[in-house]
Specification:
Radius of gyration of chain B: 13 Å
Distance between the termini of chain A: 41 Å
Oligomer: heterodimer
Number of helices of chain A: 0
Largest sheet of chain A: 6 strands, mixed
Helix content of chain A: under 10%
Largest interface: A-B, 24 and 26 residues
Order of helices and strands of chain A: EEEEEEEEEEE
Strand content of chain B: over 45%
Radius of gyration of chain A: 14 Å
Strand content of chain A: over 45%
Largest sheet of chain B: 7 strands, mixed
Chain lengths: 114, 112
């Protein structure tokens, strides 16, 4: 059974700092990995999608890497801003079983302070 | 318009009542999903459907049922709501060609 862990559970940084969020997964047989952002009480917004054959994806100030063999992904946020404050969720899509289901971590709650 | 639309956004219901949550999507994808989110537990899969004639149980399907009325519509029902079904419910669709998932804005359900 796939398990996804995100560390740290919560993080508070001053504005302008570069930061890294970590995601690890137990089964390396994945189809892809997706990072989402969730604002309090709101839906999930997709940030980056990395296919299993890719090493990284970039979008603006965000960069996500994937090391499938070691079961790890990182989300790098450059020059953090207060508007980046949210919960960040990592999810892996399996290759088989359960409809290639998406397994989520419990998230990292980020606060960027002025 | 949002790619995945859920209604209602918020609902308070009494124990024992039947309730239906609705979802529609404009992505044109065949695959649709229902998840629930609880604090500290992450999102867990309730049911999923690969096409109109395909319905599959997820990891926490007890107490729930679904109906796939059309490619674009997938509804979730609680036949007799109980307080521990209080949660944030999400509908999603996925691109089977290797694309990611797209989620709706969620329905906050409270069972009193």
């Amino acid at each position: 059974k796939q398990e996804v862990t995100q560390i740290p559970a919560a993080l508070s940084v001053p504005e302008g700092e570069n930061l890294v969020l970590n995601c690890s997964f137990t089964d390396s047989a994945i189809y892809n990995l997706q990072w989402f952002r969730q604002d309090p009480g709101k839906g999930l917004t997709s940030l980056l999608l990395i296919q299993s054959s890719q090493r990284e994806q970039t979008s603006g100030r965000l960069n996500a890497s994937l090391d499938k063999s070691s079961g790890r992904s990182t989300l790098y946020i450059a020059a953090s801003q207060p508007g980046d404050s949210a919960t960040y969720l990592c999810a892996v899509r399996g290759l088989t079983g359960g409809g290639n289901k998406l397994t989520f971590g419990t998230g990292t709650q980020l606060k960027v302070e002025l | 318009d949002a790619d995945v639309t859920q209604t209602p956004r918020n609902r308070i219901t009494k124990t024992g009542k039947r309730i239906m949550l609705e979802c529609s999507q404009t992505k044109g994808h065949d695959r649709m999903y229902w998840y629930r989110q609880d604090p500290g537990l992450g999102l867990r899969l309730i049911y999923y459907s690969f096409d109109v004639k395909d319905i599959n149980k997820g990891e926490i399907s007890d107490g729930y049922s679904v109906s796939r009325q059309a490619q674009a519509k997938f509804s979730l029902s609680l036949e007799s709501a109980i307080p521990n079904q209080t949660a944030l419910y999400f509908c999603a669709t996925s691109d089977p060609r290797g694309g990611g998932y797209t989620f709706g804005s969620g329905t906050r359900l409270t069972v009193v």
